[in-house]
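Sequence design from tokenized structure. All designs in this work follow the same two-part layout: the structure record, then the generated sequence. An example of the structure record is given first.
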């Protein structure tokens, strides 16, 4: 439901942007305008700077009342005023407004619907809408009405003065303020209309959803009842409102918006619940879906011959709810994805046998589980095709099929190929991890044969499925190392490695050089001295690294710490240190052997990673690449930088702009402890900010994954 509301409100926001806004509307409360449009008080395309007539204001009043649903019942018969015939567009609204006592006509029998409404007239009408009576006011018209309106907040943000004509912008604000204001009985007026009002804020989502109609399933040639201004396809903005057969769609005529879904789920029904005769949910290919209506449920019901064992294609709408079910040859579907797991188990339905199930993450983001021949092998990470026909499901391994080019800035094309409006993009790793990617995430990214694993084309020659190989880096797990001592758990092993007792690297080479001049006894003595000296060489602390970033001396801080005993380091063959200053820390830490348990903070919670080897991470941000079963495949130190300025979705460091990850983590660091927080809480001038970004080769990487804040006090 939350996702549905967010998608709907996003559409409202875009619909609002198509209105003709005058310069003076720049300060208008956007939520007020959204609400007015959805309730039908402001027509789409209305010039907000235009004056509101008395007839139009009657419509606005009714739209913001409990009578908005009964306007059609007013009919067109009869004349209430001599200048308002029953056929007038304002007639039903004026009739309701007058009957409820919100507005009045003139003594000459006219209503004067084309006259503009003034501030005092509008305030008087809205006060009556809120059930205030003349006896609740102090003084006489119009000052009594204007004072009361000011007192209860109706005139907040209004610049209109007494006697001045009200514009659509000002009337919208006045009526939205009414939702937040208290009625004569003391309760928030918006609550009586179904809105949630709390601390002066109005949650309009539940009411806005009521303007949406659907779901509907398109047939050949289906046309919308209006020309939409805003179009969403699979929850993404689209330029085309074309409906194809079996598309699931919803629309809001008042918002001039349509939502189209082309998502499918296909396979054998393996379970229904709560009962076979009256199902509300079903399981297909290992995933469970809710049935969107009783009509859909009847197709699955055992009373109509449906249910477990049937091969179906599900047409999915908002929140992946089943809008319809297709069977027979029309249910044929093909899916592409990467193997997550393959498991064999014992079954004893008709004697003991082995059943193999394969789990595949498909390009549409759905993980499908299919039964396959027990003798076949599909390793984790393999690319496969799942074919669904009336005869059943079949899994086939597929060879890589690559394409090269750059995703354009609007994320609508890859090289010479256009991307379909409903393109499905799946990010994968060779270990089998997978997740969907929105096109805009890889806008401007150059792809090649190594980063594109597979793609397909639709009938129009557009790429409709794209499987990538670790392009974004988003499948890695990011966090911060809690304690740098994790790198020095086995001090003896580290010392042994560096002195050459367990390595043939630089330490051994150094020992050899010593032997050539002083013999084995000298070498042994020298090794003992080196070991003693190295016991005083400590790995840099988190504090040193953070402050090294803050004051710009990161490299000197780190290298000075490690090279503090230059005689000992030289004696073990690290004379090349001066030549490698500035290279990644892995140059030094490659000497470190033996396993460790890394205690980290990931997404605000403490987590541990046990490894058989030590990885080149010191402190601060780190990236962990995992297998599907959660074991560590690799661990890399994120690159630090001092943040000079924080933007909406980016930061600046030394004149360079870095985009922030959607799931970026923010921590406050104090006295050796990380505290998860929000960027809004630490982005002021009162904090030093250190950003940690991935820099290990992902084509669409170099995103800030972690920010660590240190308070300046």
């Amino acid at each position: 439901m939350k996702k549905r509301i967010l998608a709907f409100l996003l559409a409202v926001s875009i619909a609002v942007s198509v209105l003709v806004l005058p310069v003076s509307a720049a300060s208008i409360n956007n939520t007020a305008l959204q609400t007015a449009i959805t309730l039908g008080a402001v027509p789409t395309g209305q010039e907000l700077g235009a004056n509101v007539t008395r007839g139009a204001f009657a419509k606005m009043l009714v739209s913001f009342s409990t009578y908005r649903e009964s306007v059609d019942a007013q009919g067109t018969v009869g004349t209430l005023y001599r200048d308002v015939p029953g056929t007038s567009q304002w007639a039903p609204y004026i009739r309701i407004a007058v009957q409820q006592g919100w507005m009045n006509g003139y003594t000459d029998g006219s209503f004067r619907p084309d006259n503009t409404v003034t501030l005092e007239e509008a305030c008087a009408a809205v006060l009556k809408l809120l059930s205030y009576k003349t006896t609740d006011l102090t003084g006489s018209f119009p000052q009594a009405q204007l004072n009361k309106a000011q007192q209860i907040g109706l005139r907040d943000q209004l610049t209109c003065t007494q006697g001045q004509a009200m514009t659509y912008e000002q009337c919208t604000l006045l009526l939205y303020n009414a939702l937040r204001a208290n009625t004569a009985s003391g309760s928030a007026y918006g609550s009586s209309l179904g809105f949630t009002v709390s601390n002066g804020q109005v949650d309009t989502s539940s009411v806005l959803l009521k303007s949406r109609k659907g779901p509907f399933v398109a047939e050949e040639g289906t046309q919308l009842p209006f020309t939409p201004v805003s179009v969403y396809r699979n929850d993404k903005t689209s330029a085309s409102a074309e409906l194809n057969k079996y598309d699931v769609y919803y629309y809001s005529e008042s918002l001039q918006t349509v939502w189209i879904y082309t998502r499918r789920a296909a396979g054998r029904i393996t379970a229904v619940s709560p009962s076979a005769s009256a199902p509300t949910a079903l399981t297909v290919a290992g995933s469970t879906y809710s049935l969107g209506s009783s009509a859909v449920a009847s197709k699955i019901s055992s009373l109509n011959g449906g249910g477990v064992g049937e091969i179906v294609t599900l047409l999915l709408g908002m929140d992946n709810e089943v809008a319809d079910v297709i069977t027979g040859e029309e249910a044929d579907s093909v899916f592409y994805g990467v193997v997550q797991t393959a498991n064999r188990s014992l079954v004893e339905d008709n004697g003991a046998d082995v059943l193999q199930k394969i789990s595949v993450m498909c390009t549409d983001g759905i993980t499908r589980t299919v039964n396959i021949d027990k003798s076949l092998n599909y390793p984790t990470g393999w690319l496969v095709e799942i074919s669904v026909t009336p005869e059943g499901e079949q899994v086939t391994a597929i060879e890589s099929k690559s394409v090269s080019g750059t995703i354009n800035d609007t994320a609508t094309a890859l090289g010479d190929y256009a991307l379909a409006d409903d393109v499905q993009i799946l990010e994968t790793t060779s270990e089998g991890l997978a997740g969907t990617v929105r096109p805009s995430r890889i806008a401007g990214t150059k792809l090649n044969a190594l980063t594109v694993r597979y793609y397909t084309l639709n009938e129009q020659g557009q790429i409709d499925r794209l499987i990538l190989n670790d392009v974004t880096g988003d499948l890695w797990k990011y966090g911060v190392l809690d304690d740098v001592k994790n790198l020095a758990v086995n001090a003896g092993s580290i010392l042994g490695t560096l002195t050459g007792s367990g390595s043939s690297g630089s330490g051994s080479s150094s020992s050899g050089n010593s032997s050539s001049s002083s013999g084995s006894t000298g070498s042994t003595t020298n090794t003992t001295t080196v070991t003693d000296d190295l016991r005083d060489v400590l790995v840099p602390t988190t504090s040193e690294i953070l402050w090294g970033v803050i004051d710009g001396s990161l490299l000197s801080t780190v290298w000075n710490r490690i090279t503090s005993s230059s005689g000992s380091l030289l004696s073990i063959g690290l004379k090349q240190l001066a030549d490698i200053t500035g290279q990644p820390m892995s140059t030094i830490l490659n000497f470190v052997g033996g396993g460790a348990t890394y205690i980290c903070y990931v997404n605000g919670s403490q987590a541990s990673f046990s490894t058989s080897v030590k990885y080149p991470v010191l402190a601060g941000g780190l990236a962990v690449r995992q297998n599907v079963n959660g074991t560590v495949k690799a661990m890399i130190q994120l690159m630090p930088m001092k943040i000079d300025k924080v933007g909406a979705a980016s930061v600046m460091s030394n004149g360079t702009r870095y985009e922030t990850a959607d799931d970026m983590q923010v921590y406050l660091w104090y006295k050796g402890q990380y505290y998860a927080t929000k960027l809004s809480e630490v982005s002021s001038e009162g904090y030093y900010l250190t950003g940690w970004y991935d820099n290990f080769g992902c084509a669409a990487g170099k995103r800030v994954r972690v920010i660590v804040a240190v308070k300046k006090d």
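The chain is about 25% helix and 30% strand. We note this feature because it recurs in several other targets discussed in the main text.
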